[in-house]
Protein backbone atom coordinates (compact mmCIF):
# COMPACT_ATOMS: atom_id res chain seq x y z
CA UNK A 1 0.00 0.00 0.00
CA UNK A 2 2.92 2.38 0.76
CA UNK A 3 4.09 2.16 -2.85
CA UNK A 4 0.58 2.89 -4.16
CA UNK A 5 0.18 5.86 -1.78
CA UNK A 6 3.55 7.32 -2.78
CA UNK A 7 2.68 7.09 -6.48
CA UNK A 8 -0.78 8.59 -5.98
CA UNK A 9 0.63 11.46 -3.89
CA UNK A 10 3.29 12.19 -6.49
CA UNK A 11 0.57 12.67 -9.12
CA UNK A 12 -1.69 14.59 -6.65
CA UNK A 13 -4.22 11.79 -7.12
CA UNK A 14 -4.80 11.05 -3.44
CA UNK A 15 -7.90 12.66 -1.96
CA UNK A 16 -6.62 13.77 1.45
CA UNK A 17 -10.09 14.84 2.62
CA UNK A 18 -11.43 11.28 2.71
CA UNK A 19 -10.39 8.31 4.85
CA UNK A 20 -8.69 5.24 3.40
CA UNK A 21 -10.76 2.17 4.37
CA UNK A 22 -10.39 -1.60 4.25
CA UNK A 23 -13.09 -4.05 3.31
CA UNK A 24 -12.90 -7.87 2.86
CA UNK A 25 -9.14 -7.81 2.64
CA UNK A 26 -9.15 -4.98 0.05
CA UNK A 27 -7.79 -1.51 0.77
CA UNK A 28 -9.83 1.32 -0.80
CA UNK A 29 -7.90 4.54 -1.46
CA UNK A 30 -9.91 7.70 -2.29
CA UNK A 31 -8.81 9.58 -5.41
CA UNK A 32 -9.09 13.29 -6.13
CA UNK A 33 -9.81 12.70 -9.83
CA UNK A 34 -9.89 9.93 -12.40
CA UNK A 35 -6.32 9.05 -13.45
CA UNK A 36 -5.34 9.55 -17.10
CA UNK A 37 -4.90 6.25 -18.99
CA UNK A 38 -1.10 6.61 -18.98
CA UNK A 39 -1.07 7.38 -15.26
CA UNK A 40 -3.07 4.23 -14.57
CA UNK A 41 -0.76 2.21 -16.80
CA UNK A 42 2.28 3.65 -15.03
CA UNK A 43 0.84 2.91 -11.56
CA UNK A 44 -0.19 -0.62 -12.63
CA UNK A 45 3.31 -1.30 -13.93
CA UNK A 46 4.55 -0.70 -10.38
CA UNK A 47 1.56 -1.96 -8.36
CA UNK A 48 -0.08 -4.56 -10.65
CA UNK A 49 -2.81 -5.48 -8.12
CA UNK A 50 -4.35 -1.97 -8.19
CA UNK A 51 -7.92 -1.69 -9.57
CA UNK A 52 -10.15 1.30 -10.30
CA UNK A 53 -13.68 1.09 -8.82
CA UNK A 54 -16.50 3.22 -7.37
CA UNK A 55 -16.52 3.35 -3.60
CA UNK A 56 -17.88 5.38 -0.68
CA UNK A 57 -15.46 6.98 1.76
CA UNK A 58 -15.99 8.64 5.16
CA UNK A 59 -14.60 12.19 5.54
CA UNK A 60 -11.43 12.68 7.54
CA UNK A 61 -12.01 14.66 10.74
CA UNK A 62 -8.50 16.10 10.59
CA UNK A 63 -8.72 17.07 6.92
CA UNK A 64 -6.27 19.54 5.45
CA UNK A 65 -7.84 22.25 3.24
CA UNK A 66 -7.49 21.62 -0.51
CA UNK A 67 -5.54 24.01 -2.70
CA UNK A 68 -8.69 24.77 -4.69
CA UNK A 69 -10.67 25.54 -1.49
CA UNK A 70 -8.05 27.99 -0.28
CA UNK A 71 -8.03 29.75 -3.64
CA UNK A 72 -11.74 29.61 -4.46
CA UNK A 73 -12.36 33.15 -3.19
CA UNK A 74 -9.50 34.59 -5.26
CA UNK A 75 -9.66 32.69 -8.55
CA UNK A 76 -12.54 32.32 -11.02
CA UNK A 77 -13.81 28.71 -11.48
CA UNK A 78 -12.37 28.24 -14.99
CA UNK A 79 -8.93 29.23 -13.66
CA UNK A 80 -9.31 26.96 -10.60
CA UNK A 81 -9.77 24.05 -13.01
CA UNK A 82 -6.21 24.43 -14.30
CA UNK A 83 -4.53 24.38 -10.86
CA UNK A 84 -1.41 22.20 -10.98
CA UNK A 85 -2.28 18.49 -10.82
CA UNK A 86 1.15 17.37 -9.78
CA UNK A 87 3.36 18.82 -7.06
CA UNK A 88 6.85 17.36 -6.66
CA UNK A 89 8.22 17.42 -3.13
CA UNK A 90 12.00 17.51 -2.85
CA UNK A 91 13.03 17.90 0.77
CA UNK A 92 11.21 21.00 1.99
CA UNK A 93 10.78 22.37 -1.56
CA UNK A 94 7.56 21.99 -3.57
CA UNK A 95 7.92 22.23 -7.36
CA UNK A 96 4.96 23.01 -9.63
CA UNK A 97 4.29 23.86 -13.23
CA UNK A 98 2.20 27.02 -13.62
CA UNK A 99 0.26 27.10 -16.92
CA UNK A 100 0.11 30.51 -18.69
CA UNK A 101 -3.49 31.21 -17.58
CA UNK A 102 -2.40 30.88 -13.91
CA UNK A 103 0.70 33.08 -14.28
CA UNK A 104 -1.02 36.20 -12.77
CA UNK A 105 -2.03 34.08 -9.75
CA UNK A 106 1.27 32.29 -9.12
CA UNK A 107 2.03 34.02 -5.79
CA UNK A 108 -1.43 33.12 -4.46
CA UNK A 109 -0.80 29.51 -5.50
CA UNK A 110 2.62 29.55 -3.82
CA UNK A 111 1.07 30.87 -0.60
CA UNK A 112 -1.72 28.26 -0.74
CA UNK A 113 0.79 25.42 -1.18
CA UNK A 114 2.73 26.67 1.86
CA UNK A 115 -0.52 26.66 3.84
CA UNK A 116 -1.64 23.20 2.74
CA UNK A 117 1.74 21.46 3.11
CA UNK A 118 3.22 22.18 6.50
CA UNK A 119 6.68 20.76 5.76
CA UNK A 120 7.17 22.94 2.68
CA UNK A 121 9.36 26.03 3.16
CA UNK A 122 9.87 27.00 -0.52
CA UNK A 123 7.61 26.78 -3.57
CA UNK A 124 9.30 26.85 -6.97
CA UNK A 125 7.64 27.09 -10.35
CA UNK A 126 9.34 25.53 -13.37
CA UNK A 127 10.30 28.41 -15.63
CA UNK A 128 12.01 26.48 -18.44
CA UNK A 129 12.08 22.94 -19.78
CA UNK A 130 14.94 20.64 -18.74
CA UNK A 131 17.73 21.31 -21.20
CA UNK A 132 21.46 21.32 -21.89
CA UNK A 133 24.04 18.60 -21.31
CA UNK A 134 23.63 18.86 -17.54
CA UNK A 135 19.84 18.44 -17.82
CA UNK A 136 18.95 21.53 -15.78
CA UNK A 137 15.93 23.82 -15.77
CA UNK A 138 15.31 27.33 -14.46
CA UNK A 139 13.01 27.92 -11.48
CA UNK A 140 11.22 30.90 -10.03
CA UNK A 141 10.42 31.11 -6.32
CA UNK A 142 6.67 31.74 -5.90
CA UNK A 143 6.39 31.12 -2.15
CA UNK A 144 8.52 31.01 1.01
CA UNK A 145 12.32 31.29 0.98
CA UNK A 146 13.85 31.85 -2.46
CA UNK A 147 16.30 28.94 -2.66
CA UNK A 148 16.96 25.77 -4.67
CA UNK A 149 19.06 23.90 -2.09
CA UNK A 150 17.58 21.34 0.25
CA UNK A 151 18.12 17.93 1.87
CA UNK A 152 15.95 15.15 0.44
CA UNK A 153 15.30 11.70 1.90
CA UNK A 154 14.67 8.70 -0.35
CA UNK A 155 14.55 5.01 0.67
CA UNK A 156 16.54 5.66 3.84
CA UNK A 157 19.25 7.70 2.08
CA UNK A 158 19.76 11.41 2.47
CA UNK A 159 20.75 13.69 -0.42
CA UNK A 160 22.13 17.20 -0.69
CA UNK A 161 20.18 18.63 -3.64
CA UNK A 162 20.54 21.92 -5.51
CA UNK A 163 17.84 21.97 -8.18
CA UNK A 164 19.44 24.91 -10.01
CA UNK A 165 22.84 23.22 -10.27
CA UNK A 166 22.35 19.48 -10.69
CA UNK A 167 19.52 17.27 -11.97
CA UNK A 168 17.29 15.53 -9.46
CA UNK A 169 13.72 14.25 -9.77
CA UNK A 170 11.67 12.70 -6.97
CA UNK A 171 9.58 11.05 -9.72
CA UNK A 172 12.40 8.56 -10.31
CA UNK A 173 12.23 7.37 -6.69
CA UNK A 174 10.71 3.97 -7.53
CA UNK A 175 13.15 3.47 -10.43
CA UNK A 176 16.12 4.14 -8.14
CA UNK A 177 14.79 1.45 -5.79
CA UNK A 178 13.93 -1.02 -8.55
CA UNK A 179 17.39 -0.93 -10.12
CA UNK A 180 19.24 -0.95 -6.77
CA UNK A 181 17.19 -4.02 -5.79
CA UNK A 182 18.19 -5.90 -8.97
CA UNK A 183 21.91 -5.55 -8.19
CA UNK A 184 23.48 -8.75 -6.82
CA UNK A 185 26.18 -9.12 -4.18
CA UNK A 186 29.75 -8.84 -5.49
CA UNK A 187 28.74 -6.87 -8.61
CA UNK A 188 30.60 -3.94 -10.09
CA UNK A 189 28.22 -1.25 -11.34
CA UNK A 190 28.93 1.71 -13.60
CA UNK A 191 26.37 4.51 -13.20
CA UNK A 192 27.19 6.43 -16.40
CA UNK A 193 25.06 9.52 -15.74
CA UNK A 194 24.99 9.54 -11.95
CA UNK A 195 23.82 13.09 -11.13
CA UNK A 196 23.89 13.57 -7.36
CA UNK A 197 23.97 9.78 -6.89
CA UNK A 198 20.49 8.32 -6.19
CA UNK A 199 21.08 5.02 -8.08
CA UNK A 200 24.69 4.63 -6.96
CA UNK A 201 24.24 5.47 -3.29
CA UNK A 202 21.10 3.39 -2.75
CA UNK A 203 22.80 0.44 -4.48
CA UNK A 204 25.76 0.75 -2.12
CA UNK A 205 23.48 1.09 0.92
CA UNK A 206 21.45 -1.99 0.01
CA UNK A 207 24.33 -4.39 -0.64
CA UNK A 208 27.27 -5.34 1.55
CA UNK A 209 29.68 -6.25 -1.25
CA UNK A 210 29.36 -3.97 -4.30
CA UNK A 211 31.54 -1.47 -6.11
CA UNK A 212 29.82 1.42 -7.87
CA UNK A 213 31.56 3.88 -10.18
CA UNK A 214 29.35 6.99 -10.33
CA UNK A 215 30.26 9.31 -13.21
CA UNK A 216 28.96 12.77 -14.08
CA UNK A 217 30.39 15.55 -16.22
CA UNK A 218 28.56 18.35 -14.38
CA UNK A 219 31.11 19.66 -11.81
CA UNK A 220 28.30 20.78 -9.47
CA UNK A 221 26.66 17.35 -9.61
CA UNK A 222 30.05 15.81 -8.79
CA UNK A 223 30.46 18.05 -5.71
CA UNK A 224 26.96 17.07 -4.47
CA UNK A 225 27.64 13.41 -5.29
CA UNK A 226 30.78 13.43 -3.15
CA UNK A 227 28.88 15.10 -0.30
CA UNK A 228 26.14 12.48 -0.61
CA UNK A 229 28.64 9.61 -0.55
CA UNK A 230 29.93 10.99 2.75
CA UNK A 231 26.46 11.74 4.15
CA UNK A 232 25.37 8.15 3.50
CA UNK A 233 28.67 6.57 4.61
CA UNK A 234 29.26 4.64 1.42
CA UNK A 235 32.88 5.74 0.93
CA UNK A 236 34.88 2.87 -0.48
CA UNK A 237 31.79 1.36 -2.13
CA UNK A 238 30.92 4.33 -4.37
CA UNK A 239 33.71 5.98 -6.36
CA UNK A 240 32.58 9.40 -7.69
CA UNK A 241 34.27 10.38 -10.95
CA UNK A 242 33.97 13.78 -12.68
CA UNK A 243 34.15 13.70 -16.46
CA UNK A 244 32.66 12.75 -19.80
CA UNK A 245 31.70 9.07 -19.60
CA UNK A 246 33.16 8.33 -23.05
CA UNK A 247 36.59 9.48 -21.87
CA UNK A 248 36.25 7.98 -18.38
CA UNK A 249 35.42 4.51 -19.74
CA UNK A 250 38.30 4.68 -22.20
CA UNK A 251 40.79 5.69 -19.51
CA UNK A 252 39.56 3.90 -16.37
CA UNK A 253 36.48 1.74 -16.68
CA UNK A 254 36.80 -0.48 -19.77
CA UNK A 255 35.67 -4.06 -19.08
CA UNK A 256 34.95 -3.59 -15.36
CA UNK A 257 31.15 -3.71 -15.09
CA UNK A 258 28.60 -6.45 -14.40
CA UNK A 259 25.89 -3.81 -14.73
CA UNK A 260 25.63 -0.40 -16.37
CA UNK A 261 22.98 2.25 -15.66
CA UNK A 262 22.30 4.64 -18.57
CA UNK A 263 19.90 7.23 -17.14
CA UNK A 264 20.22 9.95 -19.78
CA UNK A 265 16.95 9.27 -21.61
CA UNK A 266 17.24 11.89 -24.36
CA UNK A 267 20.74 10.78 -25.44
CA UNK A 268 21.46 7.29 -24.07
CA UNK A 269 21.20 5.86 -27.59
CA UNK A 270 24.45 7.70 -28.44
CA UNK A 271 26.27 5.95 -25.60
CA UNK A 272 25.28 2.30 -26.12
CA UNK A 273 28.79 1.61 -27.49
CA UNK A 274 30.31 3.17 -24.34
CA UNK A 275 28.10 1.02 -22.08
CA UNK A 276 29.22 -2.08 -24.01
CA UNK A 277 32.87 -1.11 -23.51
CA UNK A 278 32.31 -0.70 -19.76
CA UNK A 279 30.84 -4.23 -19.46
CA UNK A 280 33.09 -7.17 -18.57
CA UNK A 281 34.18 -9.28 -21.58
CA UNK A 282 31.69 -12.00 -20.56
CA UNK A 283 28.84 -9.44 -20.55
CA UNK A 284 26.28 -8.24 -18.03
CA UNK A 285 23.15 -6.12 -17.70
CA UNK A 286 22.41 -2.68 -19.17
CA UNK A 287 19.57 -0.53 -17.83
CA UNK A 288 18.84 1.63 -20.86
CA UNK A 289 16.56 4.70 -20.58
CA UNK A 290 14.90 6.52 -23.44
CA UNK A 291 12.19 9.12 -24.07
CA UNK A 292 9.69 7.65 -26.54
CA UNK A 293 6.46 8.83 -28.14
CA UNK A 294 3.25 6.79 -28.18
CA UNK A 295 2.11 4.46 -29.69
CA UNK A 296 4.08 1.35 -28.67
CA UNK A 297 6.71 3.12 -26.55
CA UNK A 298 8.08 -0.18 -25.19
CA UNK A 299 8.55 -1.76 -28.62
CA UNK A 300 10.14 1.43 -29.95
CA UNK A 301 12.70 1.56 -27.12
CA UNK A 302 13.44 -2.20 -27.35
CA UNK A 303 13.96 -1.97 -31.12
CA UNK A 304 16.08 1.18 -31.07
CA UNK A 305 18.30 -0.26 -28.34
CA UNK A 306 18.69 -3.54 -30.28
CA UNK A 307 19.61 -1.57 -33.44
CA UNK A 308 22.25 0.48 -31.57
CA UNK A 309 23.67 -2.75 -30.13
CA UNK A 310 24.20 -4.11 -33.64
CA UNK A 311 26.83 -1.38 -34.16
CA UNK A 312 28.91 -2.89 -31.32
CA UNK A 313 30.68 -6.23 -30.89
CA UNK A 314 28.09 -7.34 -28.29
CA UNK A 315 24.96 -9.45 -28.55
CA UNK A 316 21.57 -9.19 -26.91
CA UNK A 317 20.79 -12.33 -24.89
CA UNK A 318 17.37 -11.11 -23.84
CA UNK A 319 15.35 -8.12 -22.68
CA UNK A 320 14.57 -9.07 -19.08
CA UNK A 321 12.08 -6.22 -18.72
CA UNK A 322 10.85 -3.14 -20.55
CA UNK A 323 8.61 -0.74 -18.65
CA UNK A 324 7.21 2.75 -18.64
CA UNK A 325 8.96 4.74 -15.92
CA UNK A 326 6.70 7.81 -16.17
CA UNK A 327 4.73 9.97 -18.56
CA UNK A 328 6.63 13.16 -19.31
CA UNK A 329 4.09 14.88 -21.60
CA UNK A 330 0.88 13.81 -23.34
CA UNK A 331 1.75 10.68 -25.38
CA UNK A 332 5.44 10.87 -24.43
CA UNK A 333 7.06 8.49 -21.96
CA UNK A 334 10.31 7.69 -20.23
CA UNK A 335 10.92 3.99 -20.77
CA UNK A 336 13.55 1.61 -19.39
CA UNK A 337 14.86 -1.53 -21.07
CA UNK A 338 16.75 -4.00 -18.85
CA UNK A 339 18.89 -5.96 -21.29
CA UNK A 340 21.18 -8.95 -20.75
CA UNK A 341 24.21 -8.65 -23.01
CA UNK A 342 27.14 -10.94 -23.86
C1 LIG B 1 18.93 12.78 -16.26
S1 LIG B 1 20.33 13.18 -15.28
C2 LIG B 1 20.33 11.69 -14.31
C3 LIG B 1 20.76 11.85 -12.89
C4 LIG B 1 20.62 10.64 -11.99
N1 LIG B 1 20.87 9.39 -12.66
C5 LIG B 1 19.28 10.63 -11.29
O1 LIG B 1 18.56 9.63 -11.36
O2 LIG B 1 18.98 11.61 -10.59
C6 LIG B 1 21.65 12.91 -16.39
C7 LIG B 1 23.03 13.31 -15.88
O3 LIG B 1 23.99 12.94 -16.88
C8 LIG B 1 25.04 13.90 -16.90
N2 LIG B 1 25.70 13.77 -18.22
C9 LIG B 1 25.25 14.14 -19.44
N3 LIG B 1 26.12 13.80 -20.40
C10 LIG B 1 27.16 13.16 -19.79
C11 LIG B 1 28.35 12.55 -20.24
N4 LIG B 1 28.67 12.53 -21.54
N5 LIG B 1 29.19 11.99 -19.34
C12 LIG B 1 28.88 12.00 -18.01
N6 LIG B 1 27.75 12.58 -17.51
C13 LIG B 1 26.90 13.15 -18.39
C14 LIG B 1 24.34 15.22 -16.65
O4 LIG B 1 25.23 16.17 -16.10
C15 LIG B 1 23.21 14.80 -15.66
O5 LIG B 1 23.59 15.03 -14.33
Largest sheet: 7 strands, mixed
- Write down the secondary-structure element order: HEEHHHEEHEEEEHEHEHEHEHEHEE
Percentage of helical residues?
25-40%
Order the strands across the largest sheet as they lie in space: 11-10-9-12-13-15-14
Average pLDDT taken over every residue? 92
Uncertain residue ranges: none
What is the helix tally?
A: 11
Strand residues, percent = 25-35%
End-to-end C-alpha gap: 38 Å
What integer value in Å does the Rg equal? 21 Å
Number of strands: 15
Distinct ligands? S-adenosylmethionine
Word description of this protein:
There is one protein chain. The strands form four sheets. A seven-stranded mixed sheet has the order 11-10-9-12-13-15-14, with helices on both faces. The chain has a four-stranded mixed sheet with strand order 3-4-5-6, covered by helices on one side. The protein is globular and about 65 Å long. The two termini are 38 Å apart. Helix content is 30%, strand content 26%. The chain has helices spanning 2-10, 37-46, 67-71, 77-80, 106-116, 173-182, 198-206, 219-231, 245-253, 272-278, 297-310, and strands spanning 21-23, 26-28, 88-90, 93-96, 122-126, 139-144, 149-154, 157-162, 188-191, 211-216, 238-242, 259-262, 284-293, 316-329, 332-341. Helix 6 packs across helix 7 (198-206) and helix 9 (245-253) packs parallel to helix 10. Strand 7 (149-154) and strand 8 form a beta hairpin. The protein contains eleven helices and 15 strands. With 342 residues, it is of the alpha/beta class. S-adenosylmethionine binds at residues 133-135, 166-168, 172, 193-195, 198-199, 215-218, 221, 244-245, 263-264. S-adenosylmethionine is lined by residues 133-135, 166-168, 172, 193-195, 198-199, 215-218, 221, 244-245, 263-264.
